Amino acid sequence: MRAKLVFSASARHVIHLERPLDNRETAAVDDQKNDQKKLAADASELVVFTVSDSSGETAEAVGRAALVQFPPGRASIYRLPQVKSCQQLAGLVRECANGRAIIAYTLVLPEYRETLEAEAAKFFIPTIDLLGPLISRISSITQTAPLSQPGRLHLLDETYFKRIEAVDFAIRFDDGKNPDGIKQADIVLVGVSRTSKTPNCMYLAHHYGLKAANVPLVFGVDPPLSLFQINPKKIFGLAIDPYLLQEIRTTRSIVLGMRSENDYADPDRIRQEVRYAKKIFRELKCHVIDVSAKAIEETSSEIFLHLRH
Length: 309
Prior knowledge:
By secondary structure, the protein is of the alpha/beta class. The protein folds into 3 domains: 5-42, no CATH class; 46-154, Rossmann fold; 158-308, Rossmann fold. It has 10 helices and 10 strands. The protein has helices at residues 23-42, 57-67, 86-96, 110-122, 132-142, 158-172, 197-208, 242-256, 267-284, 296-308, and strands at 5-7, 14-16, 46-52, 75-80, 101-106, 127-129, 187-191, 212-216, 235-239, 287-290. The strands form 3 sheets. The chain has a 4-stranded parallel sheet with strand order 4-3-5-6, with helices on both faces. A 4-stranded parallel sheet has the order 8-7-9-10, with helices on both faces. α4 links the parallel β5 (101-106) and β6 (127-129). The longest helix is centred in the N-terminal third of the chain and has 20 residues, at 23-42. It is elongated. 24% of the residues are buried. Mean pLDDT is 84; it is low at 1-22, 24-29 and 31-42.
C-alpha cells in the first residue's frame, strides 16, 4: 500500500505517512474525515469582512449584492473602513482569523494590498481584490498611472455640493410643501400616501444630484395648479396595487397606534384613491411607474433612465 496524505482538522497541515496503515489507523483516519465533515456542517456563519482605506461603501455594496444570492443565515458582512497603515491591516487580519472568514477589499495603495494578501495568507483567509484588477486594466489601456489616492470617490467637489443642494431641496419641498417650488424641480413625483415618494426623492437627490419634489394625491382634493403648468416629462406618477397598499397602511396604522377602523386603511377608500390617482396621471400626461414590487433603488434608477432618455 502506498503512503497516504492525511489533512488535519484545521486544514492547515499535512501529515505524511510513510508506511501502510493498519486497521486501527484506518479507522482513526475515517473518524477524522467524519469530524471534518461535521465541522464544516456545524461551522459558524461565514463573515465577509470588507476592508477599505476609505469609507468602505463600495466593498460593502458589492458584498451585499453577492450575499442576497444565498439563503439568509449563511453569511454576513462586517465593514472595516479607514485603513491608515500596514500595521493596522495586520491587526485587522488577525481579528478576521477568529472564525470562518473571507476578506473583500478596495485598497487603493499597492503596499496596502500587498500587506493584506501576505497577512491573510498566514491565516489561510481567502481574499478578493474588488478594485485592483479594474484599476490595472484601465491603467494598461489608457497608458496612465493611477493616482493611488484613497478617498477620491468622496471629494468635496462640485458634484458633491450639487448632491447636498439637491438633498436640501428634497427636504424643503417634501409632501407638497410650497407648491410653487415645483417649477424649480428637476423631477416631481406624484402619488397617493405610502407610495414611497419621499424616499425616492431623497435617493434621487443623494445618488443622482437631482432636485426632486413630491406632491401627495388626496381623494377629493384638487392637486396644485402649478403641477399642470410644468413640463409633463419631468412628472412621474407612482402607482401601486390597492391590496398591497392596504397591507402597508394597515401595518402603518398599527405602528402609529391608530384605531383599527379608519379611512386610512379602509379597502374601499383605498380603491377610490388609486382610481383618483390614475385619473390625475392621465390629466398630467406623465410617465407612470408601478412601485408595487419595486425597491426604492429600482424605482429611482427607472426614473433616472427615463429622464435621461
